[in-house]
Request: fold
Amino acid sequence: MRLTDYFLPVLKEVPKEAEIVSHRLMLRAGMVRQQAAGLYAWLPLGYKVLRKIQAIIEEEQARAGAVEMLMPTLQSADLWRESGRYDDYGKEMLRITDRHDRDLLFGPTNEEMITDIFRSFVHSYKQLPLNLYHIQWKFRDEIRPRFGTMRSREFLMKDAYSFDLDKDRAEEAYRRMFVAYLRTYYRMGLTAIPMQAETGPIGGDLSHEFIVLADTGESGVFCHRDLLDKPIPPRDTDYKGDLSPIVKDWTSLYAATEDMIDMERFEREVPEDKRIAARGIEVGQIFYFGTKYSKVMGASVMGPDGKEAFVHSGSYGIGLTRLVPAIIEACHDDDGIVWPVSVAPFEVALLNLKVSDAQCSSVCEDLYAGLQKAGLDVLYDDRQDGAGAKFASADLIGIPYQLVVGPRGAKAGEVEIKNRKSGERTTLPLDRAIQTLKDWIEPERRDRI
Ligand code: 5CA
Reply:
């Protein structure tokens, strides 16, 4: 992508309304723009990151056996009257009336709708297990939308719903999502710790929140330090096999959010030098709620014994539009964002330091074509601006590698590669630049797969 053809409205000023670093950087890097309280437009750079996050989630959900679909954002109030949540949900729910005076709502979550779909098609245990998910915009009329897309009113969520014949099998489904979540966050460069959590308005008796530690996080959390260095289940994990050893390993060390904390237990089970009492960002939550919705909505299947049984379910959420700021909270420095390759909007920023210099521009054009041919995702800064502005905006938007071409280098047949994360600069002959970048970037892509 040529920057002169792109839309990257970076801000020079630090926006005053933004209280936390990720919000400031998302505004400054031209990733999002607030359109009304808690409502954001995703500008091209931000949207590209969102799509990369979405692709990782989709891959890991597929590995764990979940099947993607798409449900509408608007839902009929009648469905929610069946479950009893229409009145319970309160002011967070955006209620809408259509021209026929029918009550609708903008979905804050989809337990009711998926249960309705399930009950109309599935009648036998032979069709189980089933885990259906979608990635769709939700609306919750939060009292205090804040920190940009970290807590917005409209937000993009992956929500999966599992259906099983009994509790044991439902717990297997829960474990598959638990493991998929560990891998999903890891691939985005995050360490997310599963913690015992309250079930809130979703209900049920078993739940984990996945928390990324960050000083700016909204949740108070308590956990064992060793959880930060636990190895992540590999990509060839057998999701049809027994995952309980992995889940046991991750849940045997104490970790709980402030709503669930048992201080006595925390102090008894975690040696003093291993205690973390910190803040964190909730990037996902999983629930097992048994027959809570299937019973009231009549979702049952014929079991192998010929008896009808209500299905046991769980739901599994990931906040995509929250993950973007969560990754930035974890990956930035004083100059801007430092994207991990796996979610970077572009992999290489090609900086032409002097567009008016014919030789410099000709070298850049060749490199631009070559990088694309090599399958690298490149943003070519071909604007007339000076070198300082180009360095600053490349650092700000956080592309992992900068390929820098100036008139002197172009003449001498030399270019420079800067690693955004380490700050390391390497000068090398022009004809080695593309292969070198390939050699560095490809393992970073693969490592996280
Ligand atoms: N139905 C269940 C699971 S599918 C559910 O709704 N779970 S949730 O309420 O925990 O939401 C799932 C995830 O969405 C949260 O972990 C969080 O990452 C994200 N999320 C929730 N509210 C917001 C919000 N206001 N802004 C941004 N992300 C949010």
Summary: Residues 167-187 form the longest helix (21 residues). The longest strand covers residues 275-290. The mean pLDDT is 96. Residues 290 and 312 are 4 Å apart (CA to CA).
